[in-house]
Specification:
Oligomer: heterodimer
Order of helices and strands of chain B: EHEHEHEHEHHHHH
Shape of chain B: elongated
Strand content of chain B: 5-15%
Number of strands of chain A: 0
Radius of gyration of chain B: 19 Å
CATH architecture of the largest domain in chain B: 3-Layer(aba) Sandwich
Structural class of chain A: mainly alpha
Order of helices and strands of chain A: HHHHHHHHH
Largest sheet of chain B: 5 strands, parallel
Mean pLDDT of chain A: 90
Distance between the termini of chain A: 41 Å
Number of domains of chain B: 2
Mean pLDDT of chain B: 83
CATH superfamily of the largest domain in chain B: Response regulator
Strand content of chain A: under 5%
Distance between the termini of chain B: 35 Å
Low-confidence stretches of chain A: none
Number of domains of chain A: 2
Low-confidence stretches of chain B: none
Structural class of chain B: alpha/beta
Shape of chain A: globular
Largest sheet of chain A: none
CATH class of the largest domain in chain B: Alpha Beta
Radius of gyration of chain A: 20 Å
């Protein structure tokens, strides 16, 4: 399956069955399930989604090593890319993080008060870190790119300054997993821990792919735009 | 996490040029990693406990005449550690005999690497356990980290160099699997090493 990649002519259902993580992509483009045997192209047309962009994103979600060619990148609309990323942020804020937070609270309630308090304290720090990262992109990076699309380039920022620092977020997420797996003492709360860990692993996968999309698609797209408007 | 199979090398050599030379040579080869290099052997025991080397490359010139007895006894070097002499001047045969191997200033790259690789075959790295308990020194440092002290403050408090603080930190991170300061604070709280009053 290594060099396998998705194409606009395959059936949309097959694309999802090949990798459940592509379900995440559907939602973020506003595509609903129940598309019968329609092809990717047909479904995208119905929802007014750019097929090239959709297929590229699914390929990267599916295969970390997938490299988009320059013409493929150039063919994608940057505004739709931004709206996909914004949708992802919204999904993290409205669904993923609240879900994780409530699993943390359940686990915390099953621990001794001191351990529970320590767990919530650590999670809150992690939460703030993510929020800081998301709002930086929402308030600085995306508006800059939108100005660029409208040919109103601001001189004081370029995409090169966008050093996408996911490092702290990844480190804290790793620490959180370690703490839950190893360091909260045995306490008959395995089920709560597993529920929380499942959520954390899925979130981690999602964030990793989000970063891949930014590095492999967004940054090259914006570099291209910058060179055109320079 | 995969097992650490690299041989860890510590260098005690007065010449900075030679130390740099070893560093760049070891950077290029697989199977060996330079964990520390020092001009002076006086703190060798502490360096060993911090860096946990498998091999020490040591310039025998640094042995003064009064302690030419046993180098291992003098510096408390464990038997399983490989001791290599790096020689570029006359050294008494009695001293040379105490080393497991000798490298000389005239050895070229290939020769030095060959000698190291032969030694590696003779003394395969025993697989280290993946997790070890923190030493009491590391626990003290961890408590200081959890309380939010900087490396400089930790060094001053425990009378050690910043370099040593950083090495302790690396070992703490390796042993606990926790990298962030807030994660380490949480670890300290969970293990009752600190209380809330220490951080609020």
């Amino acid at each position: 399956m290594k060099n396998y990649s998705f194409s606009p002519r395959m059936k949309m259902a097959d694309l999802i069955l090949a990798n459940h993580i592509n379900l995440l992509v559907l939602g973020r483009f506003g595509i609903h399930l129940g598309f019968a045997d329609k092809t990717v192209d047909e479904v995208c047309l119905k929802y007014k989604v750019n097929t090239d962009l959709f297929v590229l994103i699914c390929n990267i979600f599916y295969d970390h090593d997938f490299e988009a060619s320059k013409p493929q990148i150039a063919a994608c609309p940057t505004d739709e890319m931004i709206s996909f990323l914004k949708k992802s942020h919204q999904f993290y804020r409205v669904e993923r993080l609240p879900e994780i937070k409530s699993a943390i609270q359940d686990l915390s309630a099953s621990c001794t008060p001191i351990h529970g308090k320590a767990l919530e304290r650590f999670f809150n720090e992690y939460y703030q870190e993510i929020e800081k990262h998301l709002s930086y992109e929402d308030q600085v990076v995306f508006p800059y790119i939108e100005e660029l699309i409208n040919y109103q380039k601001k001189a004081d920022f370029t995409i090169k300054q966008f050093e996408d620092n996911h490092d702290n977020i990844e480190i804290k997420l790793d620490d959180l997993k370690n703490i839950i797996i190893k360091y909260i003492p045995e306490n008959d709360n395995d089920e709560l821990r597993k529920l929380l860990l499942d959520k954390l692993f899925i979130f981690e996968e999602d964030l990793n792919r989000h970063q891949l999309i930014e590095d492999k698609l967004l940054v090259p797209m914006v570099l291209l735009l910058e060179s055109q408007t320079a | 996490m995969k097992a650490n199979l690299e041989k860890r090398i510590l260098i005690i050599e007065p010449s900075p040029i030679v130390r740099e030379g070893f560093k760049s040579l070891l950077d290029e080869v697989k199977g060996f990693v330079l964990v520390g290099s020092y001009a002076d052997p006086s703190q060798l025991e502490e360096h060993c406990s911090v860096h946990r080397p498998d091999i020490i490359i040591f310039n025998p010139v640094l042995m003064s005449h009064q302690h030419r007895g046993s180098i291992r006894n003098f510096f408390n070097i464990r038997e399983e550690l490989t001791l290599i002499a790096f020689v570029y001047s006359f050294v008494d045969e009695l001293i040379i005999q105490q080393f497991d191997a000798v490298l000389t200033i005239n050895d070229d790259r290939t020769r030095i690497l060959n000698k190291l690789q032969i030694l590696q075959k003779e003394h395969p790295v025993e697989q280290r356990p993946e997790s070890e308990d923190l030493s009491s020194r590391e626990t003290e440092i961890l408590i200081s980290i959890a309380k939010g002290l900087t490396n400089k403050e930790i060094g001053e408090k425990h009378f050690i160099s910043i370099h040593t603080v950083i090495s302790h930190r690396k070992n703490i991170v390796r042993k606990t699997g926790i990298k962030s300061v807030s994660g380490l604070t949480m670890y300290a709280l969970l293990n009752n090493l600190i209380g809330y009053e220490d951080i609020e």
